[in-house]
Task: inverse folding
């Protein structure tokens, strides 16, 4: 379960960065 949480955390961070890039453009 802990590993899954880490994956979710990493995924969320990736999505946030992706959204930030879109905002910049």
Result:
């Amino acid at each position: 379960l802990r590993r899954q949480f880490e994956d979710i955390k990493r995924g969320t961070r990736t999505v946030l960065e992706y959204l930030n890039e879109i905002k910049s453009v």
Observations:
- The radius of gyration is 11 Å.
